[in-house]
Write a sequence for this structure.
């Protein structure tokens, strides 16, 4: 009888050792991350998904690793996150899409994947060209935080118009429109819980993990109440206009900065200077250096005098101011000035006025 009680006590002790940690791990995720409902609503995810078994297991398995990844991204971002949130809000989308960029690149402006995707939003060369991002010798606008973010927003908006829900747009951003449509057709629903079901496998494992990763990163970030305010960020970043051919080393001297620090903020420029192919470019500097910039840097005055005749042109997907200017023997500067374009970004099916010479005007009339 004594041995029986001893065995029973030992089993009871072992059961307690195993069961208490499980109890600690079983804290409802909704209580651990009270901001989850806001995160889910911004991505059009039903709040009930917080209790989905696959998602609960994903959180328990990955939250420690992703919390470390998130904190590492914050150390690297050096003011970028605030700039990105501002651009996202100005373009009319939720600033929580910042977490898509974090998942893609860890807020590294010059991150490059094994598949040649690059920048904060990991654009492939073909997609970058589609959204008028310049990739040429000395310049890769996929690494420009403002232009790449605006291009990513246009891409996400296009996917949202096609699929109708933000979580579908985000997953299509990862796996492509065709794969997303096939998954919805096969599952006969666009319900997130069904599409991410680990056993059914309607979507690639990479995409299923990608969506859960973004939701958890956003929950972690919002739960820590890091809103990328001036207190949270080391600095604010702004963009200013400089002339083509500007040397970053010389500009850094004007701004009392280390050249490498200024170059690190402008990874899109690969040769240590701004290309001379255009008259002006936008570069990134710390907001604290703005006064110094405007006091010491003089942008050469360039007065654009448009040609005497105007033609209308309907923008086709993939066209850029450069390609249109070449077609009509016009100039990029004139097209931008006449149409009041910002950053040279074009929308498909929009109408542009093209300044042309008398000769071109008469030739096209014929």
């Amino acid at each position: 009888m004594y041995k029986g009680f001893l065995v029973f006590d030992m089993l009871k002790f072992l059961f307690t050792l195993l069961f208490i940690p499980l109890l600690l791990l079983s804290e409802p995720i909704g209580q651990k991350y009270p901001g989850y409902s806001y995160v889910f609503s911004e991505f059009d995810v039903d709040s009930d998904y917080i209790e989905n078994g696959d998602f609960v297991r994903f959180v328990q398995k990955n939250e420690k690793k992703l919390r470390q990844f998130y904190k590492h991204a914050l150390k690297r971002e050096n003011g970028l996150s605030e700039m990105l949130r501002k651009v996202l809000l100005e373009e009319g989308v939720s600033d929580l899409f910042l977490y898509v960029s974090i998942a893609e690149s860890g807020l590294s402006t010059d991150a490059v994947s094994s598949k040649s995707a690059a920048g904060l939003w990991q654009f492939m060369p073909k997609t970058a060209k589609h959204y008028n991002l310049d990739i040429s010798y000395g310049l890769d606008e996929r690494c420009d935080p403002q232009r790449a973010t605006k291009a990513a927003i246009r891409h996400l908006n296009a996917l949202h118009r096609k699929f109708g829900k933000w979580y579908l747009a985000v997953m299509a951003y990862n796996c492509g429109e065709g794969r997303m449509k096939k998954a919805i057709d096969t599952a006969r629903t666009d319900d997130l819980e069904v599409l991410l079901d680990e056993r059914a496998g309607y979507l690639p494992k990479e995409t299923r993990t990608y969506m859960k990763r973004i939701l958890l990163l956003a929950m972690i970030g919002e739960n820590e109440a890091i809103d990328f305010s001036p207190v949270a960020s080391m600095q604010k970043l702004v963009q200013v206009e400089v002339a083509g051919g500007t040397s970053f080393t010389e500009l850094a001297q004007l701004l009392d900065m280390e050249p490498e620090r200024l170059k690190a903020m402008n990874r899109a420029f690969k040769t240590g200077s701004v290309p001379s192919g255009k008259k002006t470019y936008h570069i990134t500097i710390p907001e604290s250096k703005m006064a110094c910039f405007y006091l010491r840097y003089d942008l050469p005055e360039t007065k654009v005098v448009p040609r005497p005749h105007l033609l209308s042109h309907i923008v086709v997907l993939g066209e850029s101011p450069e390609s249109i200017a070449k077609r009509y023997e016009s100039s990029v500067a004139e097209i931008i000035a006449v149409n009041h374009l910002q950053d040279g970004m074009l929308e498909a099916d929009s109408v542009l006025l093209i300044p042309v010479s008398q000769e071109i005007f008469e030739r096209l009339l014929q």
